[in-house]
Amino acid sequence: MGVTGTRTRTPPAGTGSGPLVAGVLAVDGGNSKTDVALVGTDGRVLGTARGGGFVPYLVGAEAAVAGLAPLVAAAAAEAGFDLAADPRPLATHVSACLAGADLPVEEQLLQEQIAGHGWGRTSAVTNDTFALLRSGTDAPRGVAVVCGAGINCVGLLPDGRTARFPALGVLTGDWGGGGGLASEVMFVGARAEDGRGPHTALASAAAEHFGLPTTDAVAMAVHFGSLPRERLHELVPVLFATAEAGDPIALELVERQADEIVRMAVVALRRLDLLDGPADVVLGGGVLAARQPLLLDRLGELLAAAAPQAVPRVVDTPPVVGAALLGLDHLTATGRGSVPGAQERLRGSYPRGRRARTA
Known about the structure:
By secondary structure, the protein is α/β, with parallel strands linked by helices. It has 14 helices and ten strands. The protein has helices at residues 56-59, 61-66, 69-78, 104-117, 129-135, 177-194, 202-209, 215-224, 235-244, 248-271, 286-289, 293-306, 319-333, 342-348, and strands at 22-29, 34-39, 45-51, 91-98, 120-127, 142-147, 151-156, 162-164, 279-284, 310-314.
């Protein structure tokens, strides 16, 4: 099975042809953290490592991939393999699901960099939302919506067909996620204070959260740097608490977020001809993983009306498991397959809350 937009290559000459440590080198490179796992063809986890966010849109593809090298070396060391002493490939296949791989040209650039390191005989790069999707399904089939700092949606079929969005933010029509919700809290709060908008308890709630008198004071603190802009994400739980208390503006924002998630999922289901039959809709990312009842209940109602046979699933399985499963799928499809029971063994190695060793 190959995901549309991924590319496989052999590593450069001179990397050897001896025995490999693993079937799959799996990489989940997210905006806030990166997980690496070496996985045997039987699903055993041989070595893991965790590092910081994968941000090629800030540092460039070459530097971002170079930043993976210490994590790969740490996972290899845990598996008992000295990467510096033996240049042979660590794995048969590298399965890398990466933030910033939103467009084919970005996947190609990242693919070329990963292939150049010679970590696997072949390699495939795709967006990190595919890791979420595969981590929440028993087969490479379904749709996933990630709602973390931003929002994205992908769909996948066993024959490799995909559905996806450019996911470039407002430029490509995207709204929502933690960043979008926090911005809306500030927007409606500021307008409520100065009279341009209706009253909402979000204004005082946002100000009180940061120990400031008004949302205008919060905005000034961000503008002048005394309050890091990243802290505005703390307003997402404030939004849900205010909505739970019955504030109509807060409730409207939660409704809008639920509607946006369902709209993306339904478009992806339709593109893959999954709208009229059973299909998993995997939900993940910080906003959805928080399992806020108001959001999930409304999301469930909207999805049931638009796609009655779709099954929403909030997952907390680490996405690196999905990247590894995509790698095992690739081995099976190319005749270098995985051992029966590998998927179950892999999932069993990642009970809820397990963390990879930090490199």
